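User: Okay, second chain of the day. Same drill as before: sequence in, structure tokens out.
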Amino acid sequence: MEERITAPASLNGSQSVDRALGLLSLVSYFGDQGGSLSEIVEQGGLNKPTTRRLLLALIRSGLIEQDSQTRRYYLGQEAYVLGTLATRRYGLLQIARDSLGILSAKTQDTSFLSIQRETYAVCLHREEGTYPIRTHALQAGYRHPLGVGGGSLAILATMPDDEIDIILAANESVLLADYPNLAPPQIKEDIAITRERGFALNPGRILANSWGIGIAIHFPDGRAAGALSIAAIDSRMQPDRQLELADLMRIEAKKIEARLAHLQPLNERPRRVPTPAMKARVKAERIKA
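Assistant: Same drill. Structure tokens below.
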């Protein structure tokens, strides 16, 4: 009789935890729109029964909730509580909130705070301006591949070139499919311009009449903690005003950086480097191609 070899219970349990936390992170990417079961299965890489079982476990813990009408999945109340408890140690949004208010008040345009999550940038907050015509390309919780959008490009431009190459390779299929104006060669060109100019500019490459400008926020050791950005219609992003907006954002970025210097856990966080998961993703995409 053939002997069946199974993994130790502890390993199976650890694998389940890893998968569940991966799904939790994935659901967070859908933001206020929530994710359907089919979308989560497709992007999560697990079969439907396993995905559903893990989602139910996360629902029981309060980390995820399912809308009874749409059947879409969202971050739950317990996820909010945990995030709130973590803000004293990792409170970039709390530190930056006043600066976002100042930027939107002075410019009348909408300002944003974004951070890096693996090969993507995620919008943490959107501060509305008073100008009656607004752009809606970016909302809190939305994510874009790094290099797509003003704040996202500002973050990517701070990284070493070899890390940029890995990130662009990992995102290449998404960029080519969803962002036809932002193929990797175009993003590399934009990075060079960003470094030379001192701020990132998205000249309507996601939506034609929606422009964005971004400035990176740095930890004391030079790593990017995130980025401030401002979005406006194209008529409000003429060259002279680009310089004006960049100067205003630099002032606020310096304020935030001074406050970050006092958050020891953030300062001690190791530099972001390409993870094995990122490298495996690049390899898988190349095999598909």
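Strands lie at 64-66, 73-75, 110-117, 120-127, 143-145, 200-207, 210-218, 224-233.

User: Thanks, on to the next one.
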